[in-house]
């Protein structure tokens, strides 16, 4: 079943590479409970097939980095990029995209979160296995308020500008 507007995000975990050690988080990959992270927050989440892939690197991530201040001005607490990659790759990609401290680069290493959302996709013909569909969503206190899922190979509705207009 695919998640839809009005649904609560499914239980799950995502990993993030932490650049600076704090009392709460150690340096390197840290695993977070999605339900705990979204509690009481308004979060813009966008999912994509993979780190370092052309559309994701040239358009999807840069758009959310560029418009981060506008999202914050509209009350969005955090922006997450979710991809079926490991936390090391997501951390390196985030540094390259100048997203560190702006967009949380969240790893869904085994595609468990993508599957729980019903937004997984088979990219085996490209040698990439199970990945995430391209999407964006606005989540408030764990409930999906907006959802934009791309049709295969497209980049028309999940961009930062579209979601920003829906906040």
From TrEMBL:
The record lists the catalysed reaction(s) as: a hydroperoxide + 2 glutathione = an alcohol + glutathione disulfide + H2O
An MF annotation (GO) of this entry: thioredoxin peroxidase activity
Q: Which residues form the active site?
A: 56 (cysteine sulfenic acid (-soh) intermediate)
GO CC, any one term: cytoplasm
Enumerate the Gene Ontology biological process terms: cell redox homeostasis; cellular response to oxidative stress; hydrogen peroxide catabolic process
Which keywords has UniProt assigned to this entry? Antioxidant, Oxidoreductase, Peroxidase, Redox-active center
Q: Which PROSITE patterns does this one have?
A: THIOREDOXIN_2 (PS51352)
Tell me which EC number(s) this protein carries.
1.11.1.27
What general EC class does the enzyme of this chain belong to? oxidoreductase
The residue ranges of the Thioredoxin domain are 3-167
**Family of the protein in this entry:** Belongs to the peroxiredoxin family. Prx5 subfamily.
Q: What does this protein do?
A: Thiol-specific peroxidase that catalyzes the reduction of hydrogen peroxide and organic hydroperoxides to water and alcohols, respectively. Plays a role in cell protection against oxidative stress by detoxifying peroxides.
Q: What is this protein called?
A: Glutathione-dependent peroxiredoxin
């Amino acid at each position: 079943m695919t998640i839809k507007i009005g649904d609560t995000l499914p239980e799950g975990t995502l990993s993030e590479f932490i650049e600076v050690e704090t009392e709460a988080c150690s340096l390197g990959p840290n695993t977070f409970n999605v339900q705990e992270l979204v509690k009481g927050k308004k979060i813009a989440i966008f999912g994509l097939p993979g780190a370092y892939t052309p559309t994701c690197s040239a358009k999807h991530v840069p758009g959310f980095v560029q418009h981060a201040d506008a999202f914050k001005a509209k009350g969005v607490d955090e922006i997450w990029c979710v991809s079926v990659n490991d936390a090391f790759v997501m951390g390196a990609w985030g540094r390259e995209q100048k997203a560190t401290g702006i967009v949380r680069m969240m790893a869904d290493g085994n595609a468990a979160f993508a599957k729980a959302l019903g937004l997984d996709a088979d990219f085996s013909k490209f040698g990439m296995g199970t990945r995430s569909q391209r999407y964006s969503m606005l989540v408030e206190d764990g409930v999906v308020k907006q959802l934009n899922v791309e049709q295969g190979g497209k980049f028309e509705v999940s961009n930062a500008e579209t979601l920003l207009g829906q906040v």
